[in-house]
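Exercise 3.2. Students should predict the tertiary structure of the chain below and write it as structure tokens, then compare their answer with the key that follows.

Predict this chain's 3D structure.
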Amino acid sequence: MADLHISLISVVLATAINLWLAVRCGRARIGGQVLHGDGGDVALQRHMRAQANFVEYTPFALLLILLLDLTDQDGWLLGLTALAYFAARLLHPLGMQADHPAKTRQIGIGVTFILLAFWSGWAALVAFRIV
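Answer key:
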């Protein structure tokens, strides 16, 4: 059986971050007394968008991490890049609360895009048996 420790840790981190984002939404919803939708509450809109953004990108990241892990590409590089991805996904929602362009948001999405492109290229190289 394959040793999928990087994939497993990645799923654990993704779940923890998503739960944290959901709790932030719930607290904003309760604070704004909003039962459905966003009720026009700006803080709730930002929290909801931050969680949606996480959910939009993370399935692709997890799939790429898993497939690279399954093909024995699970060295230090995969582990460190996975850790960097989840650090970036923590920075991004923090920056989304600002009323101005925040560095944490920019770093978060920039690292996300770079790593998704990197893993996609890496996976293509594996698929074509180049690495």
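Discussion points: Residues 46 and 97 are 6 Å apart (CA to CA). The chain has a mean pLDDT of 96.
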